[in-house]
């Protein structure tokens, strides 16, 4: 009974989102052979390109100095760390090289160093602030592989927790993100500043 009511309410919400241009599609099966899959219908807005400015997101983000609106968490001379605006989970991060280059074999050694250095920083910040039980790493290289911006290399980190495929995607074809992007940005930015302070203290001993 409760399950039926939840399903009806969620379907109403999903239908009203679709009417407003959310572009919700039918979900893939959430559980297949015991492996839980994340289902994030709000990403269809992004995949469909609605409201997305033209040009390369990562080149634009590399140029801006406004970290908070651009959701940038940390920068190195040749790479930067940012939040994904259409996350699969809270704390879904991306590490991108600054230069518009498509693959690891096109990067210089210094660029590869900065990308990996920021990946390690992202791991530490997520561990300090969110304590995930696991992390999915991935890079989609080329449009056929699913890259939204296929010419600009970026690595995804998606933190995972036991049970993060909850009942909402199963019964309601939608998923509830438990916090806003600005809150996630503030928490991770603070965690990164704290890590930098502890590294400085360690170095001065
Ligand atoms: Zn680019």
Q: Mind explaining what this structure looks like?
A:
The protein has 205 residues and is α+β, with helices and mostly antiparallel strands. It has one domain (2-23, 38-204): 2-Layer Sandwich (HIT family, subunit A). It is built from seven helices and seven strands, in the order αββαααβββαββαα. The structure holds zinc ion (ZN).
Distance between the termini: 62 Å
Q: If you average the pLDDT, what whole number results?
A: 78
* Outline: globular
Report the biggest beta sheet as strand number plus sense, adding barrel if it closes.
5 strands, antiparallel
Number of domains: 1
What layout of secondary structure does this protein have?
Elements: H1 2-19, E1 31-32, E2 35-36, H2 43-47, H3 57-63, H4 67-70, E3 72-76, E4 79-83, E5 93-97, H5 109-129, E6 134-138, E7 154-160, H6 167-172, H7 181-204
Antiparallel strand pairs: 1-2, 3-4, 4-5, 5-7, 6-7
Helix pairs in contact: 5-7
Bound molecules: zinc ion.
Zinc ion (ZN) is lined by residues 56, 58-59, 100, 152.
Brief account:
With about 200 residues, this protein is of the alpha+beta class. It has helices at about 1-20, 45, 55-65, 65-70, 110-130, 165-170, 180-205, and strands at about 30, 35, 70-75, 80-85, 95, 135-140, 155-160. The chain binds zinc ion.
Keywords:
alpha+beta, HIT family, subunit A, two-stranded antiparallel sheet, 7 helices, globular, binds zinc ion
């Amino acid at each position: 009974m409760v399950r039926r009511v939840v399903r009806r309410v969620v379907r109403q919400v999903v239908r009203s989102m679709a009417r407003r241009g959310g572009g919700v599609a039918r979900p893939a099966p959430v559980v297949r052979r015991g492996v839980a899959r994340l289902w994030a219908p709000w990403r269809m807005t992004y995949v469909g390109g609605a409201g997305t400015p033209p040009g390369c997101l990562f080149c634009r983000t590399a140029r801006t100095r406004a970290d908070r609106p651009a959701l940038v968490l940390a920068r190195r001379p040749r790479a930067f760390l940012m939040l994904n605006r259409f996350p699969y989970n809270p704390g879904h991060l991306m590490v991108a090289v600054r230069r518009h280059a498509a693959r690891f074999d096109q990067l210089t050694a210094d660029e590869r160093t900065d990308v990996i250095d920021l990946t390690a920083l992202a791991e530490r910040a997520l561990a300090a602030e969110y304590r995930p039980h696991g992390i999915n790493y991935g890079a989609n290289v080329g449009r056929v592989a699913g890259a939204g911006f296929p010419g600009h290399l970026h690595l995804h980190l998606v933190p995972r927790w036991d049970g993060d495929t909850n009942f909402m995607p199963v019964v309601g074809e939608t998923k509830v993100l438990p916090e806003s992007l600005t809150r996630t940005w503030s928490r991770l930015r603070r965690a990164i500043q704290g890590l930098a302070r502890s590294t400085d203290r360690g170095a001065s001993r």
